[in-house]
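Hi F.,

I've been meaning to write this up properly since the lab meeting, where we talked about keeping a consistent format for the predictions we share between groups. The idea is simple: the sequence comes first, exactly as it goes in, then the structure tokens exactly as they come out, then a line or two of notes. No screenshots and no reformatting. I'm using this chain as the first example so we have something concrete to point to.
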Amino acid sequence: SQEVALCLEQATVGASSPFTGRRLRDTGIREETGLMVIAVRKPSADGEFVFNPLPDTKLELGDELIVLGQPDQIELLKRYAGEV
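Output, unedited:
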């Protein structure tokens, strides 16, 4: 069987991101990428981390999503988030 590597990575909500102003539950991140969002770092709150964010957590421009998943899933999220 092939070993699957899991990575802990961050992706920033960019200016072109469809995530801005939406609740985590409405972003489709888990459904579209299969990633688990384990924290959100909010620069607007002095860089405070929200661990195990609730589905109602509202995302803002510049928020950093800390996610766990496979490298290809993370690349998909970064494109989707408007980071790259």
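Notes:
The chain has a mean pLDDT of 89.
The radius of gyration is 12 Å.

If this format works for you, I'll send the rest the same way.

G.
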